[in-house]
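Entry:
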Amino acid sequence: MIALILCHFVLAACSVPLVRRLGRYAFVVLALPPAATTVWAVTEWGATSDGRAVTWSWEWIGTYDVSVALRLDALAELMVLLAAGVGMLVLLYCASYFTDASPQLASFAGNLLAFAGAMLALVLADDLISLYVFWELTTVFSYLLIGHTSERKKNRRSALQALTVTTLGGLAMLVGFLILGQAAGTYRISTIVADPPEPTAAVSVAVVLVLCGALSKSAIWPFSLWLPNAMAAPTPVSAYLHAAAMVKAGVYLVARLAPAFADVPVWRPVVLVLGGATMLLGGWRALRLNDLKLVLAYGTVSQLGFLTVLAGAGNRNAALAAVAMILGHALFKAALFLVIGIVDHAAGTRDLRRLSGLGRTTPYVHAVAVLAAASMAALPPLLGFAAKEAAFDALLHGDAADRWMLAVAVIGSVLTVAYTLRFMWGAFARKPGVAVTPVHRVGAAILAPPAVLALAGLVLGPGVGWTDHLFAAYADGFPAPAHPFHLALWHGFGTVLLLSAVTWAGGAVLFMGRTTVTRLSRRVAWPTADSVFGHLLLGLERVALQVTGFVQRGSLSGYLAITLMVMLFGQLAVLVMDRPWEEAVAPRVWDVPLQGAVAVLTCVAALTCLTVSRRMKAVVLAGLTGYGTAVLFVVQGAPDLALTQFCVETVSMIVFVLVLRRMPVRFEESIGTWRRALRIPVALAAAATVGVAVWVAGGSRVAEPAGAAMVEEVAHHGLKDVVATILVDLRAWDTMGESAVLAAAAIGVTSLIYLHRRGETALSRDELQGETAWALSGRRLAGLPQSGDDTAPERSWLAAGSTLAPEHRSIVFEVVARLLFHPILVLSLYLLFCAENMPGGGFVGGLVAGLGLITRYLAGGRFELAEAAPLQPGLFTGLGLFVSTGVALGGLADGTVLHAWTYHGHLPVLGDYHLGTAVLFDFGVYLLVLGVVLDIVRALGAKVDRQIERAAGALSPAPDTGKGERR
């Protein structure tokens, strides 16, 4: 199973070279994974019909009992056949529907096949969390497919609308899944269905949330607005996603969970009321539309409501009818959508008012449409008739709520017959006063897929009994009724057949009075859900603008004050309500008096920041608070933390200084006395609250500290540095996530300096025609050697020292930078490799190496930095992430991500040594941090220097490449 799913995604990733080489015929190759899946599902038909299940699982998050689990049972068998079989036919249809010149054909092909893989995984998933992941993958790929022609505003809006509605429903569903998993003690779906949790209030809330996700996916009112607008997508997308696959996901989820939760009090009211309302509203709306595709779209909405009613009714016979109707609906609706695509291609329009005479000019297309439409109208001997008979019988012999739903189903079926006749009349009939629509020849290749689907509905009508064994294997999960229903084409004359005759007659009457019905429908029409959605979005945007204008006044200190006050009141509310300090151990003022002295000096430096008006002084004082914190770490006996804090504070101060070059010397925001008097208490109160919260958290420990166990575990492996081992081994997941966040943050910040490209451009000294940025930003000092003077220094201690004006050179600084650069790099490597037994690590090692590069930049400018680090920062950052991720994934060879191993060896000169994955992982962190520091220095240092020089005319004109930088 997993191999088939992966084949979908792997081949989807190869869609670009396939389309480039084969053109539209690449769809034939891309149809191979769905075809193989269909063959596999057919071979498993017997096993699943007998009630057996094919399973596969891989433990994902073992601590929380989350795994990637797949399970093929009777219901999944049906859905796999639909997702794979219809998907295969749609892909083959695409080979004739598109041309080699169709825009973005490769991306469309890849997205369509990837959607098929996600849908296949969704219906096979036997874990709630895995199901949610694949659920959202179908949402993402449907967004890409609906918005395929992104040049059109309608496509973009429709794609965004579908994404918004289904994603919000999916998030609600995720919360419901988490509650259900906690209530049941497992996330395994088959286990939950076999032994559901007690119907508590929490379970009822979870059921409602899960239904929100299912109903939004299947376009059930009030979430039905997105499906008709999604018809902006190409016709193959409509035939697959909106007839056989994506919209069936919600119905599938209802059917999957109904055996366990149909008895929960909130289940049936939600499912029956909303499903019935959707069936009526969708069918009524379809009677007044003129676009054939929209007629089918609202018909789909109507029948999805009917399917939801059957799947969620909660009894065995209704469940049997539901799965039969799911099959029948997928076959006839996908065929009709594909027929619309053929009509649109052949006639150039889908407007039923302009189409005339296609029944004679395209007889084979007409025949296929008649078969599919007859099944949709539930005419014998089609599969749609057998499924509708089963549905009417199940509702007729159910309880009072089921009989009410029977009345709704009969009315909805009348509407179905009416819009089916309207569809066939509009697409193929000869209309008085309308000229015969000219069409071009329809090839057999494009007609074959809908013909196969329509013929399947014809064959499975008399042969519906073949499916009874499989469908009953699912339906038998409900309590057995006194008289179990069995699928068959003919059950004799009776009430059910009479109701079917009523629907045919009623539909025919509505169709014959179509002019009056259309006029009445438009007169009593409510505001469309799409209009309501648009007004809601507009109102939300206006509210957001008002709130933004009120809150965001351009004052950073104001933003910080608001943040602190929210945090302050939130923490105070928790502390006052819980009063956790009553059982907490009283804190000690200090362990040694030196801690108190350092703390007082640190606080003095912080408070002094409030009195200064120059930015540089504020930066220095803020830096002193960081250094004071590092000294506290030293006094406390935490050298790892202290070393990291010293390095981080040093790099931060240098970055601040680089930024301040482009900012005014003094703070521009004027702060009155009363505002300062207000801000100081807020800041002090926030600090005190955080301090109390930290004290309470530390004093509220109920479990045994993990420190002793970690020390023992580290010593067991012959290591001494517990902190470094925690970061790269015991909690390597955290370090990996933090590394990725660090890289993303650095790239985001430094990208503000660039407009189109991040690559360093024109670092050659030949471009410099005047003075460097440092000479431009400084003052000429009398009495100092100038450029060209005989008294200027003759020797350059740096590679790019000649680019500096002599009056701005410091020989002492150049000598120190030259002498210390390589020792600093060696020190950084020492800190990297000694981390197992002494203070150090990849993070602090990368910072130290970055400080070495910063020293070269400060001593010699941007050309010196280019000489010292000729490689791009992105290379270091990407390589670091690659190494860390590679080490993490390498652990899969032993069964789990980030599994640690150690290799022991012997070298002739060095002696015994060992190499562990922790060191390799830390090396990745080292490279990443080095790349981040280098990226920041290049962006805020070298790049800003270059901008200053260009603004002063000191650079030669850059060639116009269309990829300039921000001036």
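The mean pLDDT is 82.
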